[in-house]
Design goal:
Layout: H1 6-15, E1 29-32, H2 36-50, E2 64-68, H3 75-83, E3 88-93, H4 98-101, E4 112-114, E5 120-122, H5 124-134, H6 142-164, H7 171-182, H8 187-202, H9 215-228, H10 244-255, H11 257-270, H12 278-285
Parallel strand pairs: 2-3
Antiparallel strand pairs: 1-3, 2-4, 4-5
Helix pairs in contact: 3-5, 3-9, 6-8, 6-9, 9-10, 9-12
Amino acid sequence: MVAFTPTIGLTLILSSCGTDLLAPLARPIHHYHPPVDTAATTRTRCARMLGAATQDTGLLSGCRLIYFGLPGRGEAIRLALAIGGVDFEDTRVPFPAWGRVKPTTPWGTLPVLELADGSQLAQARSVLRLVGKCTSLYPADPLLAHRVDELMDALEDLGVTITNAGQGLPKEEKETARLTAVSEGGVVYAMLAKIDAFIEANGAGGYAVGADMSIASILTFTNMGRLVGGVFCGVPPSVCNPFPNIQAVRKTVGSNPAVVAWYDARVDKQGALSSLSPVEQILARCRDL
């Protein structure tokens, strides 16, 4: 009797999908090789500014991130790995294969970070935090670490609030409810104002917490990209414009050399910026804010 393991099952499922299931998500696996000089400079600066523990990417060596072929909840982890200089495998599960992949994951969700020994780590923010700790993108200082976690929890609340706005209503009414929520006086607008004030109080130089890159800035960047990128019907692309500190974080992360290299590689792979998902297009253009 042969024991079935989730890792083996997932590998077999992904390898048996065939190229017909991959469109329009292109190839499912991409090996990311970070520019060495850029990654080393970023890691050294982050460790110094955040008071981070000594970097140890050994745990992540040979890892692969498994997620769908869109930014979603996996994009911040992808970017943290890229900024941290981790050579990793970017495995993108085509939607038609999800029904077979789902039972092989620890919690029936993605993303999943699979280590070189085959062990699987799940839950998006937990994985992001682990990557941050291994790449000097998460503070060792307890107070700074709390501020990072605090902002990430607030961003999670923001997503829930905008999702709930108009939930269950017909499309036109839902769009109206969401527009009201993100307009001045609305509940989402108020949350964005609080996030903007938090960044002003706790960040510096275009970073969300502290004075250099952290997973808090990265998650702010990706979550705001989803907010303005058409994921939530009825929310206009100008929703972040009234919030200068949020906009500064979006530009700073989008201009990071490793992030620029990541999206340039995505454009090269897909053939044109317009071939990326709407959210990826937004994220790629943040360097020009």
